[in-house]
Specification:
Length: 501
Amino acid sequence: MEGELKPMDAEQLREYGHKMVDFIADYYKNIENFPVLSQVQPGYLRKLLPETAPAHSETLQDVLEGWQACNLDLVPFDPDIQTKILPGVTHWQSPDYFAYFPSNSSVAGFLGEMLSAGINMVGFSWITSPAATELEMIVLDWLAKALKLPDEFLSTGQGGGVIQGTASEAVLVVLLAARDKVLRRVGKDAIGKLVVYCSDQTHSALQKACQIGGIHPENFRMLKAVSCRDYALSPDALSEAVSHDLATGLIPFFFCATIGTTSSTAVDPLPALGKITKSNSMWFHVDAAYAGSACICPEFRHYIDGVEEADSFNMNAHKWFLTNFDCSALWVKDRSALIQSLSTNPEFLKNKASQGNLVVDYKDWQIPLGRRFRSLKLWMVLRLYGLEKLQAYVRNHIELARRFEEHVAQDQRFEIVTPRKFSLVCFRLRPPQSNEDYANKLNHDLLDAVNSTGKLFISHTVLSNRYILRLAVGAPLTEERHILAAWKVFQDEAATLLSKC
């Protein structure tokens, strides 16, 4: 049928691709007009969409085109994207998005993602697309050098880098590698004696990795981090826990430190912790998912001093490095540990290059077999922006966070809870009376009030049993005016709440 969308046609792709790029460009141009946090109720979409898929094809205009020219202005009309999908979207790229941690998009990242989607290869082995494997090795070596990681993490030695989907996948694969490495030494029946250690500020991804990896729940040690150390883990706490477990016949084998914890961006002391793990033959993993991006700046590089003691290191380029989700960079010193744990070699995947150990097959460094050409977008970001612009980008967000922190500190109704290190500000509204339960309720109500305005979106945490507000600066479009507007919303909503006390 004439005009029907074909599965793949170069000229149709050109026509519709232009329309899609225009739509996305208009979306970013108008993104500040949307409520940052979606205001819909659970189950809203089922009421709006039919119960079955359409039997006959529809047009792209029916589905997509949500803006039309009218008297030189863009005004919405009623296609499904505008009326049904966008109301249910929380706009992570909004300049007023301050929740969790950022998840960056950029023009360079988008172009790389587009090229990856266009090529659409499944690069599990080198032979399936040699460029995909070799470019990934090269760009991760570039990024490792920008972070001044030890040479052992480079692909030219026994280690190397690999792009995982998320930091959760990264910590899982190294935990499995560490588990199998120790079980080869002590026997597979000893799995019930293996012990994993972390701070109670460590991301919950490690707990899930232990559940998947068969580590007994009672052997997962979350060591308490206290406020007097700004919630960084004390080396003494780790040393005491390891010594106690050794004395009872258990086998300490894995420790995860964090650079920039989720709750407060605490920084665990890598040099001292690394010495403990090394003396006890434990795998030492460093999770720098958020804050690793800042460490390309010389003035922040000291936060990962001691990484030379680590067996693996991870940062999410998709958080704060202008690389579209998903792109989590993992480096290991000993790639053979990953390969021995995760490798399979069925007949249908055998080929001359792999059998001759001439190449890297990334299928043996990850959980799934298939993988996308993710290195393209990281390559685009590094080339189109360069390290100098990327450093300036990170520094700008840290400066904006510092300015917001100043406003909070100058208002006696509020308090800063823990010192800011990067671009996250942890603060709370002081209660009219010294009642912690009431203070927690007051800040919970403030968070709800602020987010309900639709003008911005923040998230919370709990530190030392206190309900804390988190404002993370990191969206690509955020400017000082957005910081000032956010602070005005906090002041107004706080005044309303306090007037009811």
